[in-house]
Amino acid sequence: MSSVERIDQDLLKKYIIPRSLSSKKGDNGTVLIVGGNKFYHGAPILASLSALRSGTDLVYTAVPRSNIIPVRSVSPNIIALPLADDKLTVGSANRLVAMLPKRPDSAAMGMGLTVSKPESLLALVRGLQTNGTKLLLDASALIPNVLSQIENTNTVVTPHAGEFKRIFGRAAGEEKDERISAVHKAARQHGITIILKGWVDIISNGERIAVNTTHNCGMTVGGTGDVLSGLVGGLLSKYASFEASMLGVFINGVTGNLAQEKMGLHLAATDLISNIPEAMKPFDMIKE
Question: What CATH number labels 4-287?
Answer without folding.
Answer: 3.40.1190.20
